[in-house]
Amino acid sequence: MIFSEKLQILRKNKGYTQEALSEKLGVSRQAVAKWESGQVYPDIANLIQISELMNVSVDYLVKDQDCAMNIKSYDDPDLDELISFRLEANVNTYAAFMNETDASRPASHDFRYENGR
């Protein structure tokens, strides 16, 4: 994906019009329109402003590549055990029963966290 396409997608995802983006960047609406049509590219100062406003890197903006996210999986064998412990503690401690009352909305589909029960 090229810069002009990325800019247009990012702008629309943020809910900005070309006019709104141009005001935030301190450029004319025509400049934004030319960037999005691929007629010209912004200078480095504007690229930096765009990257900060859109929360992406300048590298992402200028490299011709598809939009992609690099998600690293984090495997923590203790995480499941910790979650189970926390849920069990929430159910079986004094604090869990301290303010217990009858449901004020019996048909409200309120639920209670339980671990495997």
Helix and strand arrangement:
Elements: H1 3-14, H2 18-25, H3 29-37, H4 44-54, H5 58-62, H6 77-92, H7 94-98
Helix pairs in contact: 2-3
First-to-last CA distance: 49 Å
- Parts with pLDDT < 50 across at least 5 consecutive residues: none
Number of helices: 7
* SS-derived structural category: mainly alpha
β-strand percent reads under 5%
Question: Mind telling me the CATH class of the domain at 3-62?
Answer: Mainly Alpha
> What form results from the Cα inertia axes?
elongated
CATH architecture of the domain at 3-62: Orthogonal Bundle
Q: Could you name the key traits of this structure?
A:
117 residues, mainly alpha, 434 Repressor (Amino-terminal Domain), 7 helices, 0% strand
Description:
The protein has 117 residues and is mainly α. The chain has a domain at 3-62: 434 Repressor (Amino-terminal Domain) (Orthogonal Bundle), CATH 1.10.260. It has helices at 3-14, 18-25, 29-37, 44-54, 58-62, 77-92, 94-98. The longest helix has 16 residues, at 77-92. The mean pLDDT is 79.
